[in-house]
Input
Amino acid sequence: MHCYSPVTLCQCLYALLFTCDAVSMSTNIDSTHGPEIIKQWIEEFARELQETLPTKLLIIVLKTIMTNNVFQFDDTYWLQTCRTSMGASCACSYASLYWAYMERK
Output
């Protein structure tokens, strides 16, 4: 007795299924270069951003986060000295903006 029966997902004989994944997308961004690229992105798309967005403060905070990340491993504390600050709440958005801008260049 079989519990499963085959299911046909596509009747098309010429369909191809592709997938991709970005490996280490955020960890490969240099912590000094990244904020500069985000600054360029902000300058290029300034007309599409809200006028009240504190862009200078945003870049200062981003540089601070990316260059002063302290994390805990077991009972020790470490200063991350390069690349994107892992665990920072802005890391995913930061990496997405960075790579989107770099792809356009």
